[in-house]
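Limitations

Structures in this collection are predictions, not experimental determinations, and the ligand pose is part of the prediction. Treat each record accordingly. The example that follows, with iron/sulfur cluster as the small molecule, is included so readers can see exactly what is and is not provided: the inputs are given verbatim, and the output is the predicted complex.
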Amino acid sequence: MKIFLDTVGCRLNQAEIEHLAGEFRAAGHTIVDSSKGADLVIINTCAVTAAAASDSRQKARQAYRAGAEKILLTGCLATLEQDLGEQLPGVYKLVTNQDKARIPALVLHSEQEFDLEPLARVPLPGARKRTRAFIKVQDGCDNLCTFCVTRIARGKATSTPKETVLRDVHSALAGGAQEVVLSGVHLGSWGNDLLEGETLTDLVQFVLANSEVRRLRLSSTEPWGLDDRFFTLWEDERMCRHLHLPLQSGSGTVLKRMLRHTTPEKFRQLVHKARAKIPGVAITTDLIVGFPGETDGEFTESLRFVEEMDFADGHVFKYSARAGTAAARLPGRVHGKIAQERSRMMRDVLQRSAISFSEQHINTELFVLWESSSQQGDGNWLLNGLSDNYLHIGGLAETDRCNKIDRVKIQALTSDGLYGEIIL
Ligand code: SF4
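Predicted complex:
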């Protein structure tokens, strides 16, 4: 059977879809790079924002128009909207997050478990070919952030046992991945539900000690609950100097209404500690503007705090009410035009600090994992890649160095990002 796998949203969805690809391959099926001509299309949907939900629907419609025989929807939107299959043409099955692990069995009508141990991970074909492997180590969340639909869609926090994580890491490395990204809904809660009393720090140490992974990155990590040993992880040079810490708002009162387990002061201390322990670290974030009841004063407080934090990059989301969340019932809806303007102002601040972070690296050397390449007419290869501290870097080489890590002297900042020369 020819199967096309598609995903919307977070790295966790990406990790899950890659895992599914491995299972279907193990069962003898072929993963293809387009829904055209596919016997089965599986879309891992997202519901985190109204835009992500709309993207998910759009992908299903596109697959139907491309002539896909059968469309299976899973993920957060498919979990929250049980009538999604009736809304969209061509959908033959809806599988909730709770049953997601059984998709191969449900599709193939077999309860066989697919042992991935001897199999090398194969990157997904087409545009989504990955030199970095996203590996799911945790799912769900026990917090109650009032805007969050993910915790409703994904249920209680569960951790993947570290031996299973290690098996997936070995599979990724055998398939040629240079970098492994450990992913979860609430990564920092890894271990809370396991009996051993271990934490995310123990998991990462275990992976580093038992694998030849060249670079290890943590995906989004909530800015609380990290143990005292957490920053010692970066004594190992394979750890990517990048922390994505979702702040959501820089206003203390808005954070309270969001039920976040942090305050601007605690967040500031965490960022200072990270910068002291990990020189050159890129700290990136997510922000919501226009949260219910956000006053001009609260927004200004948030904006000033974001300026002070000097983030290396970040995403700004205009608040969108998600059904079933507590925030959807809060009074004080912020008018669309005001939210739009706040979004613009917040993005400007982040853009300035991102440019400043990039500029600080001109005339320095960084290790770059080349993620894409294209041959130029004169025989040169144009390369694009990512530094361990999450800077996008371009360069030229005489040979195709895609999926290799090179030392690069950074020379200039262009509109496409940083540009540098490979040092051999
Ligand atoms: S900690 Fe993250 S995943 Fe959990 S409820 Fe809050 S925003 Fe959602």
